[in-house]
Known about the structure:
By secondary structure, the chain is of the alpha+beta class. The chain folds into two domains: 2-45; 67-343, YerB-like fold. The chain is built from four helices and 22 strands. The chain has helices at residues 2-39, 121-129, 141-149, 181-190; strands at residues 67-71, 88-93, 99-105, 133-136, 154-156, 165-167, 177-179, 205-206, 216-217, 220-224, 230-236, 241-246, 249-250, 261-262, 264-274, 281-284, 287-295, 298-306, 314-317, 325-326, 330-336, 342-343. Strands 1, 2, 3, 4, 5, 9, 15, 16, 17, 18, 19 and 21 form a twelve-stranded mixed sheet that branches. Strands 10, 11, 12, 13, 14 and 22 form a six-stranded antiparallel sheet that branches. It is globular and about 60 Å long.
Amino acid sequence: xxxxxxxxxxxxxxxxxxxxxxxxxxxxxxxxxxxxxxxxxxxxxxxxxxxxxxxxxxxxxxxxxxxxxxxxxxxxxxxxxxxxxxxxxxxxxxxxxxxxxxxxxxxxxxxxxxxxxxxxxxxxxxxxxxxxxxxxxxxxxxxxxxxxxxxxxxxxxxxxxxxxxxxxxxxxxxxxxxxxxxxxxxxxxxxxxxxxxxxxxxxxxxxxxxxxxxxxxxxxxxxxxxxxxxxxxxxxxxxxxxxxxxxxxxxxxxxxxxxxxxxxxxxxxxxxxxxxxxxxxxxxxxxxxxxxxxxxxxxxxxxxxxxxxxxxxxxxxxxxxxxxxxxxxxxxxxxxxxxxxxxx
Length: 344
């Protein structure tokens, strides 16, 4: 009898041991499964990847409305103030074989811009396509008519106070009128003009560096716009910008003394004609025109299409694709059609 009791106790102990061992095994399996579900891979094997923030174009950042300022380009007006701060500068032929510049500023706080000069009607095309307030000191008869006809948001120095525009003593009239961004914005607000903009940039900027691998070498760019105005750009490989020269003279900034430089150059060839006894010009910029895009020491041929007067110009390569433009300032050289541009 005692022997049977001992056997029964032993069997019970074995059963309990088996149950405990099985329970522990089931607990471990369930725990491991839960850990695998929650972590998929052991924590020490998880690779943490930090995503870089997406780069944003800097040259056209913000929603400030651009300001387009007519800049005197007579030799007596040199040097210019804060041209390097403009995101785009247009240069176009005017009367007397001279050229005039239009500098576009966006979101800048500049104490001096100029010398400011009078309006010409075809510059209005490019002010409007940039959604800019057009700033000038005087105007030609055609420019005055077009500004009135199309109700162009403009600021004319002739009608402004001497705090908005003033004349400096280190140059002589008419090459010495200057202004600043603070006063221009105050004048714009007084006139009820918008000072913000949601318009896209004219140029298709990219934050990835554009190198025109298939382009021709363009370490120097010679642009004889007229018998008076000959423009040259020389590529500075270290800074990756072009240094601007005009009439054999390096262009420097009036305020800082720094070289006038540009990241991009766009050339458009157009027909022009004389329209009055003063030699004032008209240009034929509608339709598709030939041109070049130049950056980082290379140049490619492009087309420049403007389908209506105030529509944005579209710049494409010869494959019909809109060109990508480096995130930096741009000089747009709108040249007579027979201008013999030379690259070296």
